[in-house]
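Dear colleague,

Following up on Tuesday's group meeting, I ran the structure prediction for the two-component complex that the binding team flagged. I've pasted the input sequences exactly as they went in, so you can double-check that nothing got truncated or mislabelled along the way. The structure tokens for the whole assembly follow below. Feel free to forward this to whoever is handling the docking comparison.

Inputs:
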Amino acid sequence: MKDPFLHKKFIFNDNINSDFLFSLYEDDFLYIEEIFKTTLDQLGSVVAEVPVVFENKNFGELRSIIHKIKPAFGFTGLLKTEEACKQFENACMRTSNAEELATLYRPLWALVVESMDIMQRQYDQLKEFNKP
Amino acid sequence: MILSSVIVEDLQVAADYLARCCEKSGLLEMKGHFPNVEEALLFLNQQSVDLLFLDVEMPGATGFELLDRLAYSPKVILTTSKTEYAYNAFEYNVSDFLKKPFTYQRFLEAVQKVTSPSQESNVNSTATDHIFIKTDGKLIRLNNSDILFIESMGDYVKFVSTDKKYITHNTIKNLEEKVNKQCFLKTHRSYIINVDKIDDIRENLLFIKGNEIPISKAHRSVVLKRLNII
């Protein structure tokens, strides 16, 4: 049987909502590690497209990519990033004004990059934590 | 009752999580996961399933387009991160709407909606030998055995019987759910036919008492499966 207090032993990054993670995966840290790995594996190449699409001012495609990566941040407990993606997606649907979208894009991109970095570090720490 | 199900989802982590929820529930047999509509249709038009977990926005085509092109109507649980699709979900008569990411408890509630006895009784209610249609301000009883086929006319449908035609305000999509599935079969997005009335089939056309009914590519394999070909 799993120790019900096991999760107390692993401290998640402040940007990750651990209560939300436990509501999805309970305290199955091996599975949480797997979730982070799957997310990193798929998101890496998708996120790399973001600045290219933005530079091409293809805001329809940009909205589509942001829509795709949004729930992945949710699955890894990065709820503020998920919410920021949602706000940007809504802005893309509301306006096609390139200047307005560029203003909103810059802080979003910084947050996405930071979140990917947090995700990677968290995955490395989980891998270490789960070592037999 | 174990339901056969398929996941159509382009985000791997969401598909994996969903597959795990399905396995944990013990209520579902997972037949496959497809990352886009085209791959899903290839499978689903060969092998029918009871339940679809369907994302909406995917590369190429949307989940709603898949439902438009599918030759039959399985139960559908939409899985999306965009609540704005709730209205379309209602229009497509989906069983539930899961906003990603969702908890296992929420997943279970959605599945139980599909497997509950009330859902089964809805299906059974279609197993009757007649239907009533509203036309010319009254309800008219049509015996299944009198109906040759039903044809879409935009927001209306035409019921063609052995001796009469009735036009009523309805859609093929809606009727597909309501008619007795043992008697009737959708052959095309605009046609539902009475299987017992088929005279012959030539290529992509089916003939009923001199009427030519098209068989769409998407429906062809399901139509052929229903015929007693020896």
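Chain B is about 30% helix and 35% strand.

Cheers,
M.
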